[in-house]
Design a protein that fits this description.
547 residues, disordered C terminus, five-stranded mixed beta sheet, alpha+beta, eight-stranded mixed beta sheet, Zincin-like
Length: 547
C-alpha cells in the first residue's frame, strides 16, 4: 500500500499583457551570464565539460522588457495579414551572405549549406568541415524537424524564406554556452544559434533550441517549467535516453518534494517538467496532445486543464483539474503500473536510480512492523511537490493514516493493491477543513500472497471475527464454509476452498468494538441503545455491558 501526499499551493499565472506601442528590437545580451548557474545543461553533453542553453536567460530579459516587438505568427490576425500560401520568395541559397543579429551583437555570416527546411550559416572566419555540415543538414531533416514539428507544431515563417536559419558562431569556447534561441529576434526571422566550439553536441542543441522556437511562436507567455520540460522532451524523442537525461529526471525522482511547477533553475526542475510532459503525452494523445497544449495561449495549469477536458481520441482519463491530474501523475511516477493512469507506456521506470535508467520516485518512508504505531520524519514539501510512503505486512486489521501539515493546501492519495488480482485502487485522504490534516483508513490491510511464486494465493485472511460452520465434504474434495460477520446485519456468505488452501482468522481487538460504537454515536444513538445487559442463565455473577 502506498500513501502519496502533495502540496497544491496556488500559483499565479503568467501575465500575457503586452504593450503594443513598443517597437524597439530586443535581441538580449549574454553579458554577465553565468552558464553553470543561470543556464540549462543540455542532455548528451560531456559531464566533465558541460554545455548549457542560454535561452531561459534571454527569454527572461525579453519578458522583463515587456515582450518588445512581439509577433504571434499563428494568430488569426497575423495570418489574415499574410498570403495564404507559402511563397518562399526570400529563400537563402548556398553562398549568400548576411549580417545576422544575435545576443552576441551583429555577426557577418555566409550560408554554407541548405536543405529542404534549413539554411546553415557559419560566422565568417570560422571553418566547418563538409562532413559536419552534411550531418547537421541530414539529421535535421530526417530526425529533428519531423519529430519536433509533430509534437510542437509547424515552423513559423515571418521572413518568407521557408527555412530555419541555423547560425553557427563563436560564443565562449568549448563548454559553457552551447547555444540559444532569442525570442527578441523571432519577430524578424526564424533563427537558432550554436557555438562553433561545441560541435560535438550540435544535434542535441539544435533539437532543444528548435523546440523553444516552435513553442515561442504559439505561446510566448508559457511558464518556463512547461517550455523547458518540452525542450528536454524534444531531445529525448529525437535521440533517446542518455546519462544527462537520466540525471535531470532522477534528480527530481530522488527529490520529489521539489515543485513540478515552481521554476528555480535547479536540475530537478528540468527533470520534473520532462516527466510531467511525457505523462501528458502518454495519456492524452501523444504528439497531437502536446501540439494542442503548445498552441493554447492559456499558461501553466490552465492550459493543461484545457487539454485534459478535451483529450485526443484514445486517451486515458487522468482527471480534468490540476489536483486530479497531479494525483494520477504522482501515482504513475511512484508505481509505473501498466494499469491505466497509474504508469507510463512511453517511459520504462526502474526501481533504482542509475545513470542508465530513469527511476521511479524514491520513497520517503517505509514500514512493515506494526507492533507499535509508526511516525515518519518531519518532511518538507514545496507547492506541487510530493512524497510517497510504503506500508506492507499488515495483520489484516484496518490501517489508520494521518498527515499533519503545518500549512493548508495539502492533499493526499492512498494507493491500495488487491493481493489476489494485483489491481491498484486510489482513495483520497479526507482533509479536515478546520485543521488541514488528512486522514485515511485501509480496511483489511495485509499481505496474503506468496511474492516468490507469481502472486499465487496461499491463504484467505478474514479481517473481522467470524462464526464459521463447515458442511460435508463434496465429491470433488471441496468443503463449503459458511461464515457470518460479527455485525448481525452483515450477510452470510458461502466460500468454497480445496484441501490445498489454508484459512486464517484474525481475532478482533477492543478497537473494533470501540470504533463501531463511536460510529453509531455519530449517527445519534445513545449508550443505552448501543449496549445492553448480558443475561447469564443459571449464573449468579454480575452482568456486564456488552455491545
Amino acid at each position: 500500500m502506498i500513501m502519496i501526499v502533495a502540496s497544491l499551493s496556488p500559483l499565479a499565472l503568467a501575465n500575457s499583457t503586452v504593450d503594443e506601442d513598443i517597437a524597439e528590437f530586443s535581441y538580449g545580451s549574454l553579458d554577465g551570464f553565468e552558464p553553470s548557474i543561470e543556464g540549462k545543461q543540455y542532455m548528451f553533453t560531456n559531464e566533465s565539460k558541460p554545455t548549457f542553453s542560454a535561452t531561459g536567460h534571454l527569454k527572461k530579459q525579453w519578458i522583463e522588457d515587456g515582450y518588445p516587438n512581439l509577433v504571434l505568427p499563428f494568430s488569426q490576425a497575423y495570418m489574415n495579414s499574410k498570403s495564404s500560401t507559402r511563397n518562399c520568395t526570400n529563400a537563402w541559397s548556398q553562398g549568400d551572405t548576411d549580417t545576422v543579429p544575435s545576443a552576441n551583437g551583429n555577426v557577418d555570416a555566409t550560408v554554407q549549406k541548405i536543405s529542404s527546411n534549413a539554411a546553415i550559416f557559419v560566422e565568417d572566419g570560422q571553418i566547418l568541415s563538409a562532413t559536419t555540415l552534411n550531418d547537421i543538414a541530414s539529421t535535421f531533416e530526417s530526425t529533428i524537424f519531423p519529430t519536433d514539428t509533430t509534437y510542437f507544431g509547424s515552423m513559423p515563417d515571418v521572413d518568407n524564406n521557408c527555412q530555419l536559419e541555423i547560425m553557427i558562431l563563436a560564443i565562449d569556447g568549448g563548454g559553457g554556452i552551447g547555444g540559444y534561441f532569442s525570442p527578441g529576434i523571432s519577430s524578424q526571422r526564424e533563427s537558432v544559434f550554436i557555438d562553433v566550439d561545441d560541435m560535438s553536441w550540435r544535434n542535441t542543441i539544435l533539437a532543444h533550441e528548435f523546440q523553444h522556437l516552435l513553442h515561442n511562436a504559439r505561446d510566448p507567455f508559457e511558464n518556463l517549467w512547461i517550455d523547458e520540460g518540452a525542450a528536454d522532451m524534444a531531445a529525448y524523442l529525437c535521440f533517446g535516453v542518455t546519462s544527462a537525461l537520466t540525471g535531470h529526471a532522477n534528480e527530481w525522482s530522488q527529490n520529489s518534494n521539489m515543485s513540478v511547477r515552481w521554476w528555480n533553475q535547479r536540475i530537478a526542475d528540468y527533470g520534473a517538467g520532462f516527466m510531467f510532459l511525457m505523462y501528458l503525452a502518454d495519456k492524452l494523445g501523444g504528439g497531437s496532445a502536446i501540439q494542442t497544449l503548445v498552441a493554447d495561449t492559456a499558461t501553466g495549469g490552465a492550459g493543461i486543464e484545457n487539454l485534459a477536458a478535451n483529450p485526443q481520441p484514445g486517451s486515458t482519463s487522468i482527471g480534468t483539474t490540476m489536483s486530479q491530474i497531479y494525483a494520477n501523475f504522482s501515482a504513475a511516477v511512484t508505481l509505473d503500473s501498466a494499469q491505466g493512469a497509474f504508469g507510463f507506456s512511453n517511459l520504462d521506470l526502474s526501481e533504482a536510480c542509475t545513470a542508465a535508467f530513469i527511476c521511479k520516485v524514491q520513497k520517503s518512508g517505509y514500514n512493515d512492523q506494526w507492533a507499535n504505531d509508526w511516525t515518519s520524519n518531519s518532511d518538507s514539501v514545496e507547492g506541487w511537490g510530493m512524497r510517497s510512503y510504503k506500508f506492507a505486512q499488515g495483520s489484516g486489521a484496518p490501517l489508520n493514516l494521518m498527515v499533519s501539515p503545518t500549512q493548508f493546501g495539502f492533499e493526499g492519495i492512498i494507493m491500495s493493491k488487491e493481493s489476489a488480482t494485483g489491481t491498484w485502487s486510489m482513495d483520497r485522504l479526507r482533509i479536515d477543513p478546520a485543521t488541514g490534516a488528512g486522514t485515511g483508513l485501509v480496511y483489511g490491510f495485509g499481505n496474503v500472497t506468496d511474492e516468490t511464486e507469481e502472486k499465487k494465493v496461499i491463504g484467505y485472511r478474514m479481517v473481522y471475527p467470524y462464526l464459521l460452520s463447515m458442511g460435508a465434504v463434496n465429491e470433488d474434495g471441496t468443503v463449503p464454509i459458511n461464515y457470518a460477520r460479527w455485525c448481525p446485519y452483515s450477510p452470510i456468505e458461502d466460500h468454497r476452498i480445496s484441501g490445498e488452501h489454508i484459512i486464517s482468522v484474525v481475532y478482533p481487538d477492543n478497537s473494533i468494538i470501540d470504533n463501531y460504537a463511536v460510529r453509531l454515536k455519530e449517527i445519534g444513538l445513545t449508550d443505552e441503545q448501543i449496549f445492553y445487559e448480558e443475561k447469564k442463565d443459571g449464573d449468579s455473577s454480575e452482568s456486564t455491558a456488552t455491545s
